[in-house]
Amino acid sequence: MAEKSFRQAISEGLRAEMQRDDRVFLIGTDISGGAGCPGQDVDAAGGVLGITKGFASDFGVDRVIDTPIAEMGYMGIAAGAAATGMRPVAELMFNDFVGSCFDVLLNQVPKFHYMFGGKAVTPLTVRTMIGAGASAAAQHSQSLHHIFTSIPGLKVVVPSNAYDAKGLLIQAIQDDDPVMFMEHKALYDLPSAAAEVPDEAYTIPFGEANFLQEGDDVTIIAMGLMAHVAMGAAVELAKQGITCDVIDPRTTSPLDEESILESVESTGRLVVVDEGAARCGFAHDVAALVAQHAFASLKSPIKLVTPPHCPTPFSSPLEQAWLPGGEQIVAAALDVMGIDAAASAVA
Amino acid sequence: MSIIEAITVPKWGLTMTEGTLTEWLVEEGDTVAVGDVVADMETSKIVNQVESSVAGVVRRLVAQPGETMDIAQLLAVVAAEDTPDAVIDAYIADFEPEEVARADLLGDSSDEETDIATADSAAAEIDTIPAPEAQALGALSEGGDDSDVHASRYARKLAGEYNVNLNNVSPSGRNSRISKADVISAIESAGGHVTKPAVNRDELSTHRSNLDDSHIKVTSVAARLAKKLGINLNDCRASGNRGRVCKADVEAANALLNGQASGRTKALGSNTTSEISAQVDAVFDDVPMTGMRKTIAARLQESKREAPHFRLSIDCCLDQLLALRAQINAEEPGVKLSVNDFVIKATAMALSKSPDVNVQFDGETIRRFKHADVSVAVALENGLITPILKRAETLSLAQVSNEMRSLATRAKAGTLKPEEFIGGTFSVSNL
C-alpha cells in the first residue's frame, strides 16, 4: 500500500466511482481543463488543482463536463440530473462562491426527498474547497461547513487526511442524499495529510468520528486542517504530561455525538478547534451538545478555539495570526486543566 | 391511663393530597365534641372546615396557620384534662400518619425508594457475586473473538474493563454501532452495576505542587505567608525583584488554589435561589402560590403534556338564538337566560347525540359517559373553578340557567361541595 497525497486520494476516489457506475459524472468550472473546445489539448489542466487531470480523455467529455463560471446554472443541472437518476459530482471551486447557487443547495436539493414524500432521492455530491492559509484573501478563504451543517437534508463531510478523503468521497457518491464534500485547500499537499491509501475502493461510514489520539485529560475536537494543528498541540501537551483524546468527527452532519460525549465523560474537559466561524459555528454546536448532555462530567468550562469574527486577512502574517494555531490550542488545554500558561512557560 | 387522640388533616375527595391550615377556630384548653368545627383549611379546590372526629380537651395545636401539610398529618392533640404534658409531648413525637390514607399518595415515591434500595443492594452484591448474577454476568463474557464488532472507542474500553464480550451487546447507535451506554445497559440487565466516576468539584484545583520548594528564591515575608497558608512555592509565580517569589505572588496562588476552590463549590453547590436573591437587591417579589393556583398550573401542564391537542373553530350566526333569548327573557318571569346558558344546553344536547365525544381516555379503555355532566369554568378572584351541571341534557334552559347561577355564586363564595366540581365529563369555558 503506497503513501498517497490528499490530492491523489480524492482523484482515485472519483476515478473508482466513475469506473464502477456510469451514472457518475463530473461537472464544474474547468474540471477537464478546457477539453472538448476547439484547439484545446484534451489532457489539459484537469481543474485548478489537477485532481481531474486525464479524466476527460479516459471517460469522455460527456462525463467530465466543463462549464463557464456560472454556478447557478451548472449546480441546477447537477441537481436535476441527481433527481432524475444520475449521480453527479459537481465541483464548486471555492465554497465562498456558494452564494451564486445557494438556492439549489439550500432550498432545492436538500428538500426534494422530504417534499416528495420520500419518493425522490438526490444523490448529488458537491466537492468544494474550504480554508485559509494560502493568502487567497477574504473571498476565497472561508470554511462554511457550519452553514451547510445547519441545513437538514444535507450531509457534510470535512476530511482531514488522504485515507479518510478517499473512503468518505466514495461513500458520498454512493449515498442517496446530497453531500457537501469540503476539502481544505492546505491539505492537498500537506505531508501529514498523506497516508497509506489502498488502491482499491472502500467506504467510510458517515457519522463516525476518528480518534486521532487517545488520552485521559482533555478532549480536543478538530477536523480538516485543524486536526493537524490539534495533533501538533497534543504533542506539545504530552511533553507537559497532559494526554488528550483528539477526535476528528470527519462528518459534521451526521455528527458522531456519541463519541464526543463518551470522550468528554471520560476526560471531563473539552477544547473545540474549528476554522469555520467565531459565532454560531461548528465549535459552538459541539459546545452546546456537551453542555446539554455531559455537563455533569465537565471539570472546567469548555474552551473554543476559532478565528476571530472578522474576514480572513490577505496579508500572510495577519492570516497566520487569524488562523487558530497550535499555541492557542495548547493554551486552551492548559486553561481547562487549570494550569496558568504563563507560569508553566516560565517553569 | 387516659386516651390521647389526634385531629389530623382530612382527605376531602380523591384528589386531595395536602391542605393549608388557614385558621384555628379553637384554642388550647377548649373542650370539643365529635363534629365540632376546629379549623379552616384550604385545599387546591376549596376552603372547608375541619371537624373534630374525637371528643375531649384540645391540649396542643400542633399545626400553625399558613402551614401546608400532607393529608393524615397531625393538626392537634385531644386528650383528657389531667393527661400530663410530657405524655402529650411523647405522643406528638411518636406520631405516625396513618399509612392507609397515605398509601395511594405516596405510591410513586415509595416505589422509587424500593428501586433505589434494589439498586444499592445490586451494587453491593457485585463484590460478593451471588450465584444468579454471577452466571448472567459470566454469560456476558462468553463468545468468540469480538475484535470486529462495531463499537465506539469508549464502549470497547468499558467492555474490556468489565470483561464483556461485545458479541453479547446489542447496538443502538448509528450504523449499528455499540455505544458505551449499550455496554452499561447489557451489564446492568445482567444484574451488574457500573460505577460512574463522579466529578468531585472540591478536588478540581488539584494542580498543587508537592515538590520540595526550599531552593526557590523567596522574600522572607512571602515565605512566612506561604507557610501559614500552606502554599507550595512551586505554585507561585516569581514576580518579585531578582526573580523572587513575593508576598503578592503567594496571595495570588492562595486565591487561585484555595479561594477558587471554595468559591466554585459555593456557586455550584449550596447556593439556593433564595440565598442568591438575598445577595442582590430584590428586583422581584416571590408571590407564594395558593393551592388553587398550584392546581391550575399542574393541571394545565398535565393536559398540555399528556393529551394531543387540536383546535376547531367555527363561526355561528346567533341571530335566532339571540331572538329566542330576548323572547324568553321578556315572557318568562324569574328567568334570565345568558348566551352561555344556551351554549351549555347546546353542548349537553350535542353530547347526547354524539356519545363518542362524551368520553374519557385513561390509556387503557375509553369510558363513555351516559350523561352530559358539563363542567363550566367560573372565574374567581384568585383563579378559576369548574362547577358541574349534572345531567345537563335532561335540564331545561331555565333549569340550566338557574342551576348555573347558583353554582357560580357558591363557587365565588368558596362553598362548593367537592362533588359539585369533581367529575365532569366535558368542559365549557368562555373565560
Termini gap of chain A: 45 Å
Q: Rg of chain A from C-alpha positions?
A: 20 Å
What general outline of chain A do the C-alpha atoms trace?
A: globular
Rg result of chain B: 34 Å
Question: How are strands sequenced across the largest beta sheet of chain A?
Answer: 3-2-4-5-7-6-12
Keywords (chain B): Acyltransferase, Lipoyl, Pyruvate, Transferase
Cofactor (chain B): (R)-lipoate
Organism (chain B): Pseudoteredinibacter isoporae
Family (chain B): Belongs to the 2-oxoacid dehydrogenase family.
Give structural attributes.
heterodimer, A: 347 residues, alpha/beta, Rossmann fold, seven-stranded mixed beta sheet, five-stranded mixed beta sheet, 13 helices, B: 431 residues, alpha+beta, Dihydrolipoamide Transferase, four-stranded antiparallel beta sheet, 15 strands, extended
How does this structure look, described?
The complex is a heterodimer of chains A (347) and B (431). Chain A has 13 helices and 14 strands. Chain A is α/β, with parallel strands linked by helices and 347 residues long. In chain A, strand 13, helix 10 (282-293) and strand 14 form a beta-alpha-beta unit. In chain B, the strands form five sheets. A four-stranded antiparallel beta sheet of chain B has the order 1-8-6-3, covered by helices on one side. A four-stranded antiparallel beta sheet of chain B has the order 5-4-2-7, with no helix packed on it. Chain B has a three-stranded mixed beta sheet with strand order 14-11-15, covered by helices on one side. Chain B has four domains: 4-97, OB fold (Dihydrolipoamide Acetyltransferase, E2P) (Beta Barrel), CATH 2.40.50; 105-189, E3-binding domain (Dihydrolipoamide Transferase); 201-270, no CATH class; 293-428, Chloramphenicol acetyltransferase-like domain (Chloramphenicol Acetyltransferase). The radius of gyration of chain B is 34 Å and the shape is extended. The two termini of chain B are 59 Å apart. In chain B, 23% of the residues are buried. Chain B is 40% helix and 14% strand. Classes of the chains: A alpha/beta (347), B alpha+beta (431). At the A-B interface, helix 9 and helix 13 of A face helix 4 of B.
